[in-house]
Design a protein that fits this description.
This protein is mainly β. About 5% of the residues lie in helices and about 45% in strands. The strands form 2 sheets. Strands 2, 4, 5, 6, 9, 10 and 11 form a 7-stranded mixed beta sheet that branches. It has a 4-stranded antiparallel beta sheet with strand order 1-3-8-7, with no helix packed on it. The chain is globular.
Length: about 110
């Protein structure tokens, strides 16, 4: 299986929104929906933390720190998983990783700063 590829990270100001994307090249539909997708993040000097998950049934979970601000979703047609991030805060600054079937992407940097 190819590695997930994340995109969408950038520098934004507090209160703004971003949407991160994750896809696995050449993944087939049945595989795309066969397991749980997850977003993690890692700030400098800190451990990698789970941010959100979506399972094959579409059930989602969120870290308490992002509940009500972040939304994870799947686009079956594009075979892409998104992380919509609203109301961004400085403490959301981190390298965001996508994980699928135990395979990690290289991450996409989100920086929230005025």
């Amino acid at each position: 299986q190819a590695r997930p590829e994340e995109s969408g990270g950038m520098l934004v100001q507090p209160g703004q929104s971003l949407r991160l994307s994750c896809r696995v090249p050449r993944i087939i539909t049945s595989t795309f929906n066969s397991d749980t997708w997850a977003w993690y993040r890692q700030a400098p000097g800190k451990q990698r933390d789970l941010v959100a998950t979506v399972d094959p049934r579409g059930t989602t979970t969120y870290a308490d720190s992002v509940k009500g601000r972040f939304t994870i979703s799947k686009d079956y047609a594009k075979k892409t998983v998104y992380l919509q991030m609203n109301g961004l805060r400085a403490e959301d600054t981190a390298l965001y990783y996508c994980n699928f079937k135990g395979t990690w992407g290289q991450g996409t940097q989100v920086t929230v700063s005025s």
